Amino acid sequence: MRNDSRLSRMLHVLIHMDRHAQSATSDTIAKMLNTNPVVVRRTMAGLREQGYVRSEKGHGGGWTLARPLSDISLLDVYKALGEPHLFAIGPADDQPQCLVEQAVNGALADAMKDAEALLLRRLGSVTLKEIADEFEAKLTARSATAYSCAS
């Protein structure tokens, strides 16, 4: 199963948006993420529906933050993205009548449920501001010319 990087990518975008005063067009964001502007609009729509970003159409339009980063948690963004699968592993269903498969699936389900609850709690406890502050601290520790992330 392929990794779903939407959460990481949208966190990246939102922090960039906070650093820049002007709005970001879907084209600009698409170039940053090496994807299609339609994908950006579709993904950003979930964030807009939850009130984290807003969009303006037309010349000079684009996406802007609707809330400060301190008011947005990783869990908020995860939920706005439709709560994608957290883990790539899961139960087998090749032999549903097999008692061994049933026992294995039961053990995996319990472990995954516990891991998911722990991860969701952690996502809820971290704001985008904390990540942005960590970036700023690292940037300050280096020279400003070392900042090479496309924006």
Automatic annotation (TrEMBL):
Protein name per the record: Rrf2 family protein
UniProt xrefs under InterPro entries: Tscrpt_reg_Rrf2, WH-like_DNA-bd_sf, WH_DNA-bd_sf
PROSITE patterns: HTH_RRF2_2
Species for this entry: Rhizobium binae
Pfam families (alphabetical): Rrf2
